[in-house]
Design brief:
heterodimer, A: 187 residues, alpha/beta, Aconitase, domain 4, 17% strand, globular, B: 458 residues, Aconitase, domain 3, seven-stranded mixed sheet, 15 helices, 31% helix
Amino acid sequence: METKFRALAYVLGDNIDTDQIIPAQYLVYNPAVPEEYRMFGRYALSGVPRDRAGLPSGGVPFVRDGEYSTDYQVVIAGKNFGCGSSREHAPIALNAAGVKAVIAESYARIFFRNAVNGGYLVPLETDERLIEAVRTGDLVEVDIDGCRLVNLATGQTFRLKPLGDVRPIIEAGGLFRYAERSGLLKR
Amino acid sequence: MGMTITEKILARASGKPAVQPGENVWVNVDVLMTHDVCGPGTIGVFKQHFGPDARVWDRTKVVIIPDHYIFTRDEKARRNIEILREFVREQQLPYYYDVGTERYKGVCHIALPEEGHTRPGEVLLGTDSHTCTAGAFGEFATGIGNTDAGFVLGTGKLWLKVPPTLRFIFTGDPPAWLMAKDLILAVIGRIGCDGATYMAMEFTGEAVFGLGKIAAEFAGQPISDRPVGFSPAIEERMTLCNMVIEAGGKNGVIAPDEVTEQFVRERTQAAGTRTDFEPVHNDPDARFAAEYRFDVRTLEPMVARPHSPEHAVPVSDAVGEPLDRAYIGSCTGGKVLDLIAAAKVLRGRSVAIPTFIVPATTEIERAMDRIRLNGQTLREIFESSGCIIGPPSCGACLGGPLDTLGRLNEPLRCISSTNRNFPGRMGHKEAQVFLASPLTVAASAVAGRIADPRDVLN
């Protein structure tokens, strides 16, 4: 797990559900096939209505037309990120696009679990209303061990919550490696 | 200390005398369900981690129900069905309901109980968020992703955090026009679409056990070629539990009673699946994180405005709002009772806007030809009112491939008996979706704008 990194931020609102993260028509691709896995990156966050895509201005495509990865490796969102459908294609889409971490005020349970157990990205939480303090395109520094996020565009620093009891799973790289390391899975 | 139904099921499944909310436990899974959208990825995870020749942990506990992208020309969707078929052949799985055969069912959450895969006291995991529907049978049922499901396929186990339980108590005698959809929308409107995140939601009270009056005269009637009777009460309980995920809930649960046990006995016997089960109930000193009380005599039919189920308002606040389309279908709104309710409104009337009827399963589709209101079958009523009837599947509830019948390919205003109205859920991301009971959807289809079903029924 990379514990400290700098990246451009992409900012979203509250209740971003998994249909917005990866619309249902793209679920025909099979994430177990590498060429098809890439396609989820191409369409990541393509279901977000235009006026809410990349706050505060909106109208910012997450992935440019025809490309497979994003310029924004940190997604910042409000409450209840990843609600709705249980599709694992949602954290897969963000991972395929190159996202390293999502920072939200809260998560829907299944998205959080899929992100952790699949080892796709680090889902961080904060009590701060970050979506009003960071603008899409700001360069931010995420410091997981230091539990903080610095907006290098403004110099402001924000507290992040510690990862808590899912940290060992994230550090192991997902459920399978965690279960092996802890002796729960012998193969 | 006493335990709730959910805590007791998870204690038993993890081999512990007791568990507490917040505790992480490894549970033994009784049934794992997957479908055509998440099955290929799940199979991929299983093969990657357990090897190309690995066997599933118990072939009688794996249920595969293709239901999402069935009636489409999309090549990848068809390829995904082929992946399921190949896996079923290779693993010799007995519970597969293949497309294009007599076994084909339709929506997994309705097919599971119809085919005898739901039993009180068990743990059911499925790669679909609406797996929580089966809490209606007094079991622990929740949605998981491909990685978790791949892990379960190989081991039969999964770690779960024991959720605290929120209790929703509905008092009063429910009027016939008040449907489970109205109750659950009222709940989500009150606690919000993350109000139950990480929690179990138990539904209880005399009104919960008194639901289904709109179709009470058909209770016990055979609706298919099987010796099983129609249960309006069970269908309404499924609708309640189906939408706990729309409040962020981990699982929904309703205490099993004689109605549950009879339903499960009939269905498991008819399907030839395991018939033994051990119902569990709350201990008298069980602890709940919170209790919410609703007097159903104060409730109205509910409508959830775009773009969230939490935007639920009484129908009187929305009456008259213009619509372009109506849709009745899905696991939450395309069951027998839902279609009977819609037919009671549509009988002798014509729809004013394009209206789609999509039965959840093939058994429900057959019920449309068996059940009659004043001599007319449900199908005849829908056809003569001008509805378009689609084949059983998830249909346009989740948009799906562009050629899905009823999909919102344009930014239309649609009222729907489905369960989600986040942006883009039914197709176009600028479309406006209103959620309501099948009675309210049908009344609105006739009016061409949002209408109160009580005005039609009275």
